[in-house]
């Protein structure tokens, strides 16, 4: 099967944001604040929130009700294919952040391990079941 071609005259697009639809805005923002994101105070009571990440990429949160207001047929789907990855300063940082978030009541998914690709890696689930990975290069990978 051939891929459709994109016209050379088509406008270019740049990756600008990651959007998440959440069941509980306050719970989701508390989780991502625990990962170090700078999210405006009071955003937990709003139907839409945003945070600008280093480099200008944005992460957006919308409540399920907000999405249904413009797409009445929208329903959450289990087992999404999108995950977010957060780099830590060190392998010990992966372990410490994982334990801190699990200790705060968030769901761990895979405890920290040394991945074959040369990183210390762990995964958690945010309040809506989205996979969030923590990672740091191991000394072997840094060589």
Plain-language structure description:
The N and C termini lie far apart (41 Å). The protein has 143 residues and is an alpha/beta fold. The radius of gyration is 18 Å and the shape is globular. A four-stranded mixed β-sheet has the order 4-7-6-5. It has two domains: 14-72, 2,3-Dihydroxybiphenyl 1,2-Dioxygenase, domain 1 (Roll), CATH 3.10.180.10; 82-143, 2,3-Dihydroxybiphenyl 1,2-Dioxygenase, domain 1, CATH 3.10.180.10. The mean pLDDT is 85. 24% of the residues lie in helices and 31% in strands. A hairpin with a 4-residue loop joins β5 (107-114) and β6. It has helices at residues 25-34, 64-70, 91-103, 139-142; strands at residues 17-22, 48-52, 58-63, 83-87, 107-114, 119-125, 131-137.
Write the layout of secondary structure elements.
Elements: E1 17-22, H1 25-34, E2 48-52, E3 58-63, H2 64-70, E4 83-87, H3 91-103, E5 107-114, E6 119-125, E7 131-137, H4 139-142
Parallel strand pairs: 1-3, 4-7
Antiparallel strand pairs: 2-3, 5-6, 6-7
Offer a concise description of the structure.
The chain contains four helices and seven strands.
Q: What's the overall average pLDDT, rounded?
A: 85
CATH topology of the largest domain, which one? Answer: 2,3-Dihydroxybiphenyl 1,2-Dioxygenase, domain 1
Amino- and carboxy-terminal Cα gap = 41 Å
**CATH homologous superfamily of the largest domain - what is it?**
2,3-Dihydroxybiphenyl 1,2-Dioxygenase, domain 1
What level of helicity do the residues show?
10-25%
Number of strands: 7
**What is the CATH top level name of the largest domain?**
Alpha Beta
Rg (C-alpha, Å) = 18 Å
CATH architecture of the largest domain: Roll
In terms of quaternary structure, what is this?
single chain
Low-confidence stretches: none
């Amino acid at each position: 099967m051939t891929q459709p071609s994109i016209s050379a005259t088509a406008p270019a697009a740049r990756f600008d944001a990651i959007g998440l639809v959440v069941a509980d805005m306050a719970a989701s923002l508390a989780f991502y604040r625990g990962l170090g994101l700078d999210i405006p105070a009071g955003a937990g009571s709003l139907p839409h929130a945003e945070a600008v990440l280093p480099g200008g990429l944005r992460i957006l949160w919308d409540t399920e009700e907000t999405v249904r207001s413009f797409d009445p047929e929208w329903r959450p789907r289990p087992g999404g294919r999108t995950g977010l990855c957060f780099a830590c300063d060190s392998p010990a940082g992966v372990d410490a952040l994982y334990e801190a978030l699990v200790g705060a009541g968030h769901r761990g998914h895979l405890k920290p391990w040394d991945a074959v690709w040369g990183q210390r890696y762990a995964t958690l689930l945010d309040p809506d079941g989205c996979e969030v990975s923590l990672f740091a290069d191991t000394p072997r990978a840094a060589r």
